[in-house]
Amino acid sequence: MNIKELDPKRSLRAAYGASVRSSREERSWTQHDLAVRMGYGDAHISAVETGTKPPTLRFSRSADIAFGTGDKYERMYREMRNGVLLEGFPEYVEFEGRASEIRLFEVGIIPGLMQTPEYARVLAYSAVRRGEISPEHAEERVTVLMDRQARLTRRRPPMVFVVMDESCIRRTVGGREVMASQLDALVEFAERATTVLQVIPFESGERRSFDLPVNVLTLPDRSLFSYAESQYQGRLEREETAVARTLMTYHQLQAEALSQADTVALIAELRKGIT
Predict the structure, then answer these.
(1) Co-location of 95 and 77 in the same domain
(2) Can you give the residue range of the structural domain that contains 28?
(3) According to the model, what pLDDT value does residue 85 have?
(4) Averaged pLDDT score across all residues of the chain
(5) Do 48 and 160 belong to one domain?
(6) What percent of the chain has pLDDT over 70?
(7) If you ran DSSP here, which 8-state letter would residue 87 be given?
(8) pLDDT of the residue at 147
(9) 259 with 170, same domain?
(10) Tens digit of pLDDT for each residue in 127-182?
């Protein structure tokens, strides 16, 4: 049998896979033995061990149960994920996954929860070309984003309100083909029963109430959290008065934005210009 050698020092994902393999072999288990214990297929175990497939939180918790390792693999997973996200963002993502309402504002790029994989990958690999992250981290960013998007289709999905600056849809990312697919995805997003999509036009000028991306979450118990970020750092705000002010400002932003019908019409018009 050919066993792929894995250098644990190459990346956090490689270290994770090597650790799973080591834990399995210490117990004299085959990949099939571990797959049965964890509820996964043999191929999935092999892909994680060789680093060709990133582990998920569910996989990590299942591994800890199977191996009796406490929270070892969950901690490795969180370390790996946190290494590719801005400071403050991993904690935000945890709350986002439980939110009953999500409000987003973005400038310059399509908000992550609506990005196609192709659009997201272009942005991630632009960071690689700038030397900010490794190709491994770029793929992790895309994986984290796709995991977040999957939560929007859960059995009881959250309401998602999105306001985008007009620059988000006019800035071409990844070329015409990628952008055409992304604009189509925005229209599909707006058609969902649990979403509201609005663009705030350039002509709003100084009436646009935010200059940086802002997210506001409402949890099932009606508690509120807000999140804002700069180029290299994010901040999760929990203080009730501060978040209430942010929510009020968000409502003012929505009032200045185009209606969803006008927003979709504008996106459709831009889409026609891409052949």
Answers:
(1) no
(2) 12-82
(3) 60
(4) 89
(5) no
(6) 91
(7) B
(8) 87
(9) yes
(10) 889 887 778 778 878 888 988 899 898 888 999 999 999 999 999 999 999 999 99
259 and 173 co-located in one domain: yes
| Cα–Cα distance for residue pair 92/225, rounded to 1 Å | 8
Give the tokens for residue 139.
């793929």
Eight-class DSSP state of 53: S
Beta strands 234-237 and 224-229, pairing class = antiparallel
Residue 75 lies in a domain: yes
Q: What number is the average pLDDT over the span 48-60?
A: 87
Number of domains composing the chain: 2
pTM of this prediction? 0.71
Could you tell me the CATH number of the domain that includes residue 68? 1.10.260.40
What is the edge-to-edge ordering of all strands in the sheet holding 234-237? Answer: 195-200, 159-165, 101-106, 214-218, 224-229, 234-237
217, 238 contact by CB (below 8 A): no
Evaluate if residue 120 carries a pLDDT over 60. Answer: yes
Both 23 and 107 in one domain: the answer is no
| pLDDT tens string 201-233 | 999 999 999 988 999 999 999 999 999 877 666
Domain identity same for 108 and 211: yes
The answer to whether 67 touches 34, Cβ cutoff 8 Å, is: no
- Domain assignment present for 225: yes
DSSP 106: E
Q: Are strands 224-229 and 159-165 parallel, antiparallel or unpaired?
A: unpaired
Q: Which two tokens stand for residue 149?
A: 């998007």
Distance of CA 2 to the CA centre of its chain: 35
Other beta carbons less than 10 A from residue 159's beta carbon:
15
CATH label of the domain that carries residue 254: 3.30.870.10
